Amino acid sequence: MRLVHLVDTAAPNGPRSYAEHLRVPSMSVGTAVLGVGAVDGQLPHTEDEIYVVVRGSAKLWTPDLTVDVGPGSVAFVPAHEEHRFVDVVEELHVIVVFAPAEHSNPPAAQA
C-alpha cells in the first residue's frame, strides 16, 4: 500500500481527513474520516463513487434520498450527483472507491 496524499483539515465542528492509498487509471481507493459534528463540504465528483463504512454513524444525503450509514453500509453515488455525509454522531471511517480514478474525468460542462 502506498500513501499518495493526505489532506487533514479542521472542519468547523470536527476533524476531516482523506488519504488516497491506491491509484491506477481505472480506479482510486482512499480512506476518509469525519469527526463527530463535522461538516462534509465535498462537491459532486466527476467519477462514480462507492463508500464502505468501516466504523461510526452518520447519514448520507443526496437531493433525492437520505440514508443512515454505519459499519458495513455500502453506498453507490453516480458521477455528478450532489451528496455529503451529515449528522455525524460517531466518528465516521469510510473506504472510498472512485472509478475511474478521482479527478480522471473532465468537469461537467456548465449549462
Q: What would you say this structure looks like, in words?
A:
Strands 1, 2, 3, 4, 5, 6 and 7 form a 7-stranded antiparallel β-sheet that branches. It is built from no helices and 7 strands. The protein has a single domain, classed as Jelly Rolls (Sandwich), CATH 2.60.120.10. The termini are far apart. It has strands spanning 5-11, 14-24, 27-34, 48-61, 66-69, 74-77, 84-99. Strand 1 (5-11) and strand 2 form a beta hairpin. By secondary structure, it is mainly beta. It is 0% helix and 58% strand. Residues 1-13 have low confidence and may be disordered.
The radius of gyration is 13 Å
**H/I helix tally:** 0
In helices, the fraction of residues equals: under 10%
Largest sheet: 7 strands, antiparallel
Which structural class do you get from the secondary structure elements?
mainly beta
Pattern of helices and strands: EEEEEEE
Percentage of β-strand residues: over 45%
- CATH architecture level-2 label: Sandwich
| Parts with pLDDT < 50 across at least 5 consecutive residues | 1-13
Q: Which topology does CATH recognise?
A: Jelly Rolls
> How many discrete domains?
1
Let me know the CATH homologous superfamily.
Jelly Rolls
Which outline best applies?
A: globular
How widely separated are the two ends? 40 Å
Number of DSSP E strands: 7
- Mean pLDDT across every amino acid position: 85
CATH class: Mainly Beta
